[in-house]
Structures are given as C-alpha cells and as structure tokens.
Amino acid sequence: MPSSGTTTKPKSENKSSSENPSCIRRFKTLDLAMKRNHYRQDALIEVLHQAQETFGYLEEEVLVYIARGLKLPLSRVYGVATFYHLFSLKPQGEHTCVVCLGTTCYVKGANALLEAIEQEIGIHSGETTADRKVSLMTARCIGACGIAPATVIDGHVHGKQTPESLMATMQDCLGNRE
Ligand code: FES
C-alpha cells in the first residue's frame, strides 16, 4: 500500500504548504480518495478530480503524490492532468466556472454561455480575474450530455443552462461566499 492510513508526507521544497495543518488535512483527503479506489491506476481521473476539488489546482507536489500513491509514472499523471481542460496546474480564482464545449453542449448553445460569461466577468477561457475571484475554463465533455448545455461551478454540475441561468448561478455563488 503506497500511502496507507497514515499520511506519507509529500516531499516538497515548499515547506509552507506541506507542513501547514490544512494542507496535511487535504493530503489525508487525497489518501482517502486513493484508498476508496483501492489504489487502482484506472481511478486516476477520479483521484485527480478529488485532488483538484481539495487543493483548488494540481500543483506539482500533488501530482507527484498521486503518481506515488497509484504507482504510475509521473509522466502519465502529468499527461492526463494536462489533457483535460477541467484540470488546472495553476492556482485558480476563489471560484471556478467551467463551460462544457463538447459536441452535445456546443449544439445546444454552449458557445452563447461562454460568450455571456466572458462578457460579464471580462476574461477569456483559461484566465482568472485580476481580483482572483473567478477562473473561467472550458472542457471537452464533462459526462453530463443528457442535461446539455452543462457547466461546472465550484465543482457542482449545472445542466440545461441558459446565459441567464448561468449568470444567476454565478451571482448566487459570488454572493453566498462573501
Ligand atoms: S458534451 Fe457537454 S457534457 Fe458532454
């Protein structure tokens, strides 16, 4: 078992992150996600999802930790993390908005969603607002084609979105947190 119940302290030059109690808790959450999946290598995407949800983005030490835990080459973990637009290797804003531009969503008007949100918050896909409040991303398919067009806001999937409903959800989300 690579990381068992006790947290294997990730090797990092960045002491401030890995020795911080909240960071240790997050690595424990990551341990649990890998354990729940029996350290199966084919659970990589699910584990990466959990990691992104827990850490906000996939920093190098997190990818190294997952590679060790699932006994995968780091190159494979990097490959998957960089292939899917849903994953980010850079720090994100406090809130994230992912607009799915997969075929089904696109046919059902995802482009209008993207244009509306880009106009509203003044950034393009792949960017974070200057105040670091919101990061905007696109994905190829988030596996929710049945409720297309779909978005993922702060990790929650929203289906059958219109530009109006997307704006309302974003405003809700920005208003609720601060
Ligand atoms: S194409 Fe958007 S969820 Fe599949």
Automatic annotation (TrEMBL):
Region (Disordered): 1-21
Residues reported in the UniProt entry to bind [2Fe-2S] cluster: 100, 105, 141, 145
Cofactor-binding details, from the entry: Binds 1 [2Fe-2S] cluster.
Pfam families recorded: 2Fe-2S_thioredx
Keyword Metal-binding among UniProt keywords: yes
UniProt GO molecular function: 2 iron, 2 sulfur cluster binding; metal ion binding; oxidoreductase activity
Keywords, sorted A to Z: 2Fe-2S, Iron, Iron-sulfur, Metal-binding
Cofactor: [2Fe-2S] cluster
Assigned protein family: Belongs to the complex I 24 kDa subunit family.
Name the record gives this protein: Bidirectional hydrogenase complex protein HoxE
Species annotation: Tumidithrix elongata BACA0141
GN (gene name): hoxE
